[in-house]
Every structure is written in C-alpha cells, then in structure tokens.
Amino acid sequence: MSRARPRGGGNPRSGTPGTAPGWSRACGAGRHGASLARVDDPGGDADDRGRRARDALAGGRFVDIRWVEETGSTNADVLELARGGEAAGTVVVAERQTAGRGRRGRTWEAPAGAALTFTILLRPRASVAGLATMAAAVAAAEAVESLAGVRPALKWPNDLVWPGDGSGPDRKLAGILAEAEWPPGATASGGWTRPTTERVAVAVGIGLNVAWRGRFPAELVDVAVSLDELTAPSGPPDRVDLLVALVRRLDELDRSLETDGGPEALRAAWAGRSATIGRRVRVDLGADDVVGTAVDLTAEGHLVVETVEGERRVLAVGDVVHLRDR
What angle do helix axes 262-272 and 132-148 make, rounded to 10 degrees? Predict the structure, then answer.
C-alpha cells in the first residue's frame, strides 16, 4: 500500500452496491498481473513464505495461500479466481504489485518486502457483504496489536492509522479495498437491496506497511507510518506471522457474520477501535463536503455525522479528514 497517486482517466469506482463503505465495483474480467498467481509459481523466498503460512493454517478453513514475487494486482487476481469458482479463503500475497489499486481510482506502490500486500476471497451473504471492509480492518488491527504490541486505530471507512487518538496527526499504517463480483442476475447487482440468501464473491485487499522506516518518499513521511517505526528499536513482526494471525481472525469474523448477533458484534468491535467516532471531520463526497462531528456507525457500517448546521447525515462513502479540535 502507500504511495497513493490518482490514476489517469476514468471516474472513481462506484460503491458496491452503492452504499458500502470502503467498496469498489469490480469491472471487467481482464487480468492485471503478468500471470495469475498459483501455488506452484517459482519465486524462492515467496514459495517459502507461502509454505510456512499454509503449514501454520493447516486444518483451518482459510488455508489456500498463494504467495508470489510479483503480480499486477492481487485484487484482480482474486476476482479472476472467484470467477473460476475458487472457494472462500483463497489468498494471494505478492511481494510486489505493479498495478495495485486503492479507493477512488488510486494506485498503490511499495518496495518489495516493505509491506504485507494480499487479497483474500470471501463469499458472504449479500446482506452482510458490505461489512467485509470492517471485518478486515478489525482483524488487521487485532493481528498488529497481538504481534507488534501497538494498538492502531481505525479510520472510516478503510484505514488503520497511528496514533488515532487525537494526540498527533494520524498517519496511515494500512489500507483496505473490498471489491465485489455480483453474479449475473443477482438481486443486488443493479442497486442496493437487502437479499438474505444470495452470496457474493468479495475480494478484500489489504496493504500493511511493515518495513518502510527511513524509506518513505518525502511526500509521505508525515502521512504514513510502518510497523518497524512503531516497534523500534526492535524489529517488526514477521510478515508470515502477521498474515496467519490476520487470516485466522478474519475467518472467525466472517463466520460470525452468519449468526444473528455477528454484525452488531463486529460494529461494536470496530467502534471500539475507531479513530473517527467522536472526532470533528470533513468528509469529501466528491460533489461537496460534509463538516461536523462523527457520532456513530450504523449496522451497515455507514458513518453518522452531526453537521455544523445541526443536521444528522448518514454517509455510505466518502474520504474522511480528521480535523483538529478548536
């Protein structure tokens, strides 16, 4: 992740199904990588890391780890695998992405080995598919806390930030992009509904800065952070260990979304780590901005903002800027 820059051409992707925070609609079936990631791809260290991850996750549901040296976009690879019928829990990890992407048409770059960049395939019910970003964020934050001993906060809709408590400017530690592949003729494919039985393929991409200390470009020094900076003088956690912890927790959260109380428990877990709720914010909606105080999160993961005019706005998408208290 990190190093965001606007793509040339095109419009920001619309949310899927138009109201899910941190979402992008998957467009087209073209492959963005030099080759689709496979377990038996050559790659030396990547092969070793993939084998270690699979061994650690053996016996679980999410065990199909495909770790490669380079690909275009792990999200594009996983969406293509989804079209081919691959099961939930398929994971593509890349040492380097040449066409990695973020929200609103941005692209993402990181030096090889500096970040943990991967995408996991989920197949949730469509009624809870919009919570995939929240689930990934909670899983990532918990994995980082358990292995690195630091507690990142969650910035709506899709970032892990540090410190996140208002004590200093928030710097981005990780970003998440969830893209859905709606089956032809699906109830929700043409717009937002709340189906209860349909399932949708969701590619959840995560980029976590691990070992960038002293190497961030000048324009990112004040806005991004990596784990090795937060854990210094000790080194950062091993990326395989981070992946295993994150995937295990995401498996648990994904299962819990199938239960009656799962979505609310996830909302509460996200809110408990939020860097946004209770803060003064400006939310960029593209056509206009909303300025006010973030006061709550809905069951669907939408942000509730009490504006300076005294109105309550429920926002499904938007870029949040945390404002300093007056």
Answer: 50
The rounded average pLDDT for each run of 10 residues, N- to C-terminus, in the chain (326 residues) is 30 34 45 40 73 97 96 96 96 90 59 92 95 98 98 97 90 96 62 63 97 87 94 96 98 97 97 97 92 96 96 96 83
Nearest of 246, 208, 152 to residue 2 by alpha carbon = 208
Which of residues 233, 251, 272 is at a domain's end? 272
Question: Which residues lie across from 25 on neighbouring strands?
Answer: 180
Q: Angle 311-155-73 (CA atoms, 0-180°, nearest 5)?
A: 125
How far apart CA 4 and CA 105 sit, in angstroms, is 10
Residue 117, classed as helix, strand or coil, is: strand
Domain that holds residue 298: 280-322
- In terms of Cα–Cα distance, which of 204, 203, 174, 54 is closest to 114? 174
Residues 31 and 97 in one domain: yes
Phi, psi of 321 (to 5 degrees): -115, 125
Count other C-beta atoms under 10 Å from residue 189's C-beta: 18
